[in-house]
Each structure stands twice: as structure tokens, then as C-alpha cells.
Hints:
The protein is α+β, with helices and mostly antiparallel strands and 184 residues long. The protein is 37% helix and 24% strand. The chain has helices at residues 2-37, 86-97, 130-136, 152-164; strands at 40-49, 52-57, 60-66, 69-70, 102-105, 119-125, 128-129, 141-142, 176-177, 180-181.
Amino acid sequence: MKKNKKIVSALIALLIALTGGYVVSDSSTNSSIGVEEQKVTIELERVIDGDTIVYNENGESKKMRLLLIDTPESTTAKTGTIQPFGKESKEFLTDYLVGKNLSLEYEKTKEQEDQYGRVLAYLFADGEFVQKKLVREGLARVGYEKGQEIYLDDLKEAEQAAMLEKKNIWSIKDYVGKYGFNNK
């Protein structure tokens, strides 16, 4: 009788261990799915400039400002002149996004919309982080950060590499300022 109780106890313990392992495995799968669910699939309508696009989400047209970056102006509307590398940043973004699967992700520590009604988000093209690509190419500077954003370290690293290589905006001495671009 004692032997049967030990066998039954061992079987129950084994079942609990196996079931517990399955639940842990299953919950970790769900958490990675949860990360993907945070990304929203969108369709590009047009590129306004190097850091602003118009996109379609579920039949609704929206304007988006790419979080944590600033690119030179590609038109005369804001500054009165087209800034160096403004057109290049817009052209690069346009070429880079065309034909790719696009998605956006919101920053948990920031508002999801700015004072102009633009969506504030991170942009991904075929899974690649678009802001990082622009910064790494020297076509954008890191800006508008509070210091706790999820992709800030990645962007700062890309910016350092572009600065060291003097790529594009970094090729003009004192062009990149703390709050934008100095007219040259």
C-alpha cells in the first residue's frame, strides 16, 4: 500500500512538474506575442520630410512624426530656406520605405500625439528601426528625448558612429545644434 502511495505521489508530482513547465513555456510565448501586438501595421501614403510621414491605418489617413529624431527642413516653409541635407533625408526616407511592410510602435513614456495632432511613434520597415537607419546615415540627429525612452540608447549609439564618420549632417562644422540645425 505504501509503495502504491509513493508511485501515485510520484506520478502526481511528475504531472504537476510537466504541467507547470508547459504553463511557463506558454506564458513566455504569449509575452513575445504581446510585444508584436504593440506594433500597428500601417500603409505609407507619402513622405512629408525626413521625420514626418502620412500613413493609412484601417482606412484612416494620419500624419506621424518619427519619435526621438530631427532632420533638416526639406522645404522653405519653416525656416525660409531649405537646410543642408533636408532634401537628402526626405529622399532617403521615401526610397527606404517604398514597398516595405510598415508598422509603428508607441513609446510608453510619451504622449501618443503632439500639439499639431501628429501621431508620435517609432517606425519600422520590414522589421528594421527606421529612426536608427536615418541617424546612422547622418541624415537625422537624436532629439526631443527625456532620457527614459526604450530606443534612446540605440539611437545615441548610431549617432556617435555617424558623428565619428562625419556622415552627411556631421560633415558640416557646427551645423548640428542642441535644438536643431544652424543655418549655414
